[in-house]
């Protein structure tokens, strides 16, 4: 072979290689694509709320965030209270795997261990709901809740979120003007508030949310508290009672709880557990914002429906604190975990409460300047 032919063959090799690579790439592009199978894990939840309650809406809001971020790999379906089990049986159902998870409040499990009510009942040493949630997430509360669930053999994973606005004293056939007005009333509440109101002389009936208004309507109870303007309006309180007492210490720092069956939760891959964690945090913020919007709207709507609102007298609030101190002293003697939770809350509240009280301006001063009686 001549030098000229060799040179020509050498120059042609790169060209042929490029053609073969291009042909292979083209073949790959025209070949049928093989779909990768994606498994969807579906979890069945139940809330402890009637379908019409905004709290059930909050449960659906959480599920929607998980479903959107899960990318088709994780789906939560939420049923309303009573669909599978009664509201107060949610913890047992999740523990047994009858339900994969649920949405409620820790105080509903009060009967299992009364220390559980400390995440919802009482004045929490002067902490507002968001501070109680801060204590839970950063001040040791989460570890204590896990310890209590372990002690009562509940294999669940708990996430607390959604600090609730301060709850009213409740709905009364006649306004409360003094502590003596509470005595003898057949009253609905839950958690450690049951013990507090008993100290005030009431006969307590801890009914679930969906049963309160029918009981009021039939005269089975004389008065009741539930939670907020929106829930109370949707559940029909203004249809049977026209007096609502605002402000109370009985449940001034409560949170919502999202429960998972531990085995179901542990079986999830790390990235889906992260989806749940971030969905809880996002839902907590979103719930707080939505509550302000909806509660303030429904507060005005309730007034238009003829509901009269009264501030709970300071004498009644002080009597609540006196009753609370007596109740927790008794419970702490009987339950070491109860005392352990109290000690943790108190240490956190002393520091965080001083910071908040010292730093927070009196917003009423500004509100009254622009919207108070002189501007009406």
Account of the 3D structure:
By secondary structure, the chain is of the alpha/beta class. The chain has two domains: 167 residues, Bacterial extracellular solute-binding protein, family 7 (D-Maltodextrin-Binding Protein, domain 2), CATH 3.40.190; 133 residues, Periplasmic binding protein-like II (D-Maltodextrin-Binding Protein, domain 2, 3-Layer(aba) Sandwich), CATH 3.40.190. The protein has a six-stranded mixed beta sheet with strand order 7-6-8-5-9-11, with helices on one face. The N terminus is likely disordered.
Write out key terms for the chains shown.
disordered N terminus; D-Maltodextrin-Binding Protein, domain 2; five-stranded mixed sheet; six-stranded mixed sheet; 12% strand; alpha/beta; globular; 376 residues
Distance between the amino and carboxyl termini? 108 Å
| Text of the CATH class of the largest domain | Alpha Beta
What structural class is derived from the secondary structure elements?
alpha/beta
Cα-based radius of gyration, to the nearest Å: 29 Å
Give a brief outline of the structure.
By secondary structure, the chain is of the alpha/beta class. Helix content is 51%, strand content 12%. It has 2 domains: 41-165 and 253-294, Bacterial extracellular solute-binding protein, family 7 (D-Maltodextrin-Binding Protein, domain 2, 3-Layer(aba) Sandwich); 170-251 and 307-357, D-Maltodextrin-Binding Protein, domain 2.
